[in-house]
Design a protein that fits this description.
The protein contains 14 helices and 18 strands. β17, α13 and β18 form a beta-alpha-beta unit. The longest helix has 24 residues. The two termini are 14 Å apart. 42% of the residues are buried.
Length: 402
């Protein structure tokens, strides 16, 4: 069987720990036998990020701008413990945060629904798609320790050189910490339009939530931008499709989500989207069952798994022990990238390949063959727990039958 020939490379961003192992095995078993893979490879493993002063992360983002489609493995965002573990030069920023800031856009995360895995929230009947703003806020923040007796101020220097100063806190009685973060109207507008366009394309209602009652300028700006764009550009389109847009406070949104039937897009600011996408992934089945794609207003697409690097499995793997690591979200990152590459390059066979691999995954799990994490929550009467390679080979076998 001749391999599918690609026209334009994908940007391939390798990662860390167990997901790096999963990455290689997916390529060996599900990709390279069927596709003449063309990729521009970047090693975003933590040791290489440290060795290159994190330049490799920036280079991978620039390559995504060049080629338009990227696929990314999960990576470590180091804390103090990781700095010591890896002997790092410094506590490097989140590679996802760096890439998202350079590409702008919105991260859409949707659960992968499969036969035999029922949502923990019994009322959910359809997927809830998280739309996460992928720029600014705490991910691009500047923070610092503050010595007792100091004052922290927010200083804005205007174009004419004049300054305005706002007292954040007088640390007269104690040492402390302070943080400064930002966003831009341009990025918020791109976020809003991406959400409205996605909702229209999927014919889903759109919710947006923040905390404007407390953050009366920062969060209120998000609320106003969404409302103004909706009223001026999308209201009639939404009404024609019978879908709605509404804003509510983040705490009210939580209550509504838990009582809903699903089947809508939930737009969140950067941190909220980070947290609630993991919550939804787990509630719908597993963190390893959540797709994630960064959609830039400039036409760039970056696909990744929504979960982390699975260090517990990695330590078992290093000891030579068998792991039953769930590779599904990483498989869907690759297939999403291949389908988009095929769409942009007018290669229908590449799109079909991606669709068939995804169907093979769903068929494999739906027929009772799955990794250990899914076996624990599956309500199928007969289940067979497979190791990582066994599962990938089973998917390949099913793909060959489609």
């Amino acid at each position: 069987m001749a391999k599918i020939q690609m026209k334009t490379p994908l940007v391939e961003m390798d990662g860390d720990e167990m997901t790096r192992v999963v990455w290689e095995k997916i390529k060996d078993i599900l990709i390279l036998p069927y596709i003449d893979l063309k990729s521009e490879y970047y090693d975003l493993g933590l040791p290489n990020r440290d060795a290159t002063e994190d330049q490799v992360t920036k280079d991978s983002a620039e390559a995504t701008k060049k080629y338009g489609v990227a696929v990314k493995c999960a990576t470590i965002t180091p804390n103090a413990q990781r700095v010591e573990e890896f002997g790092l030069k410094k506590m490097w920023k989140s590679p996802n945060g760096t890439i998202r800031s350079m590409l702008d856009g919105t991260v859409f995360r949707a659960p992968i629904l499969v036969k035999g895995i029922s949502p923990l929230v019994k009322g959910w009947e359809a997927p809830i798609v998280i739309a996460r703003h992928a720029y600014g806020d705490i991910y691009s923040a500047v923070d610092t320790k503050v010595e007792k007796g100091s004052k922290a101020e927010l200083v804005i220097t205007k174009p004419d050189g004049t300054e305005t100063r706002t007292l954040i806190k007088d640390f007269a009685g104690s040492d402390g910490i302070s943080c400064g973060m930002h966003n831009t109207d341009a990025s918020i507008e791109s976020f809003a339009r991406a959400c409205f366009e996605y909702a229209l394309s999927e014919k889903l209602s759109l919710w947006f939530s923040s905390k404007d009652t407390i953050s009366k300028i920062y969060d209120h700006r998000f609320k106003d931008v969404f409302n103004d764009i909706y009223e001026a550009e999308y209201k009639e389109k939404f009404e024609a499709l019978g879908i709605e847009y509404f804003y509510t406070l983040i705490d009210d949104a939580i209550a509504r989500v838990m009582k809903s039937k699903g089947g809508f897009v939930w737009a969140c600011k950067n941190y909220d989207g980070d947290v609630f996408s993991d919550m939804l992934a787990t509630a719908f089945g597993s963190l390893a069952m959540m797709t994630s794609v960064l959609v830039s207003p400039n036409g760039y697409f970056e696909y990744e798994a929504a979960h982390g690097t699975i260090p517990r499995h990695y330590h078992k793997y290093l000891k030579g022990e068998k792991t039953s690591t769930n590779p599904i979200a990483t498989i869907f990152a690759w297939t999403g990238a291949f389908k988009k590459r095929g769409e942009l390059d007018n290669l229908p066979e590449l799109v079909t390949y991606g669709e068939k691999i995804e169907q093979a995954v769903l068929d494999t799990v739906g027929s009772g063959y799955m990794t250990g994490d899914l076996a624990l929550i599956s309500d199928l009467p007969e289940k067979h727990v497979l190791g990582l390679e066994e599962f990938l080979n089973k998917v390949a076998e099913r793909y060959g039958e489609l």
